[in-house]
Amino acid sequence: MALAGKVALVTGATRGIGKGIALQLATAGATVYITGRTLQSREGAPAPGSLNETEKEVENRGGRCIAVACDHSRDSDIDSLFDQINREQNGRLDILVNNAYSAVDAIMQNSGKPFWTLPPTFWDEVNNVGLRNHYICAVKASQMMVARKSGLIVNISSMGGLLYLFTPAYGVGKTACDRMAADCAIELKKQNVAFVSLWPGPVQTELVKKNILEPMRQNQDRAGQSDSNVAEHREQSRTTAVHRMFEQGETPEFAGKCIVALAQDAGLMKKTGRVLTTADLGQEYSLCDVDGRSYSGTRSLKYILQIVGWTKASEYVPSFIAIPKFVYNAYYGRF
């Protein structure tokens, strides 16, 4: 097994991307600690999944997983988590994946509302676990990794770090996650510890299916049964584009396959401090998703044409033709 003997920590692994990453790391042979607030599933819970369910699925695949109930908004819980890993693994931690995020429902419920209409506490709701906690975990993991002169830290971020997405508090947090990786990497490089920021593409998580895909299908069904004016048609077109984007989205495990490949890369330190995308890593490492699909990514001209509805035109465009990164930087540049 590629990661046999390695110890990993994936925060926020009750469901979604965190669960998918934990499954892949464990399948590759790592001992994986997983965290979240929901240890056991309960009837009527606002979201599916639990740490025990993730642990059981890992074990069914032959992997080793240790579930730790942890509220990442509480510093004392984080302290106890790292004390436990330090004690049980004799100071060893090879991989940290900062994925915990507690604001998905809050963002979905408030998306489209001007930031000045939301209470200032909305900032804390979005960025306490999704940013501050990442820094604290990075500090504690680095202390263990530097002592061994080896390690990989991954912040799960998104394109929201480059362009407007959902709400300002979200974008600021993701931009900060990317900058955290870049700046911490400078200080960790001489210690042979890598720190990167990883942007998955659109991912078909349980909450995305619940909050985006299912409502959009219902709206499309209603729209097809009634006449619509121009404004409604435009909104329907925008909704259809978002729907296509997630319909073609990655499974939650693809990011995990990318991290497994990164952890084995002999040239990992050349990537430290960078923003990496799952699509680019998938192409570099020749990875397919668990359902056999491969991805050309959001820079792919073919992908962009498909999302905006120009499916016929996309048939004549090779998958390898992509918008250069410098064009993105120039278009979204701030200077």
UniProtKB/TrEMBL annotation:
UniProt-recorded name of the protein: Dehydrogenase/reductase SDR family member 1
Protein family per UniProt: Belongs to the short-chain dehydrogenases/reductases (SDR) family.
Species assigned in the record: Ramazzottius varieornatus
Pfam families xrefs: adh_short
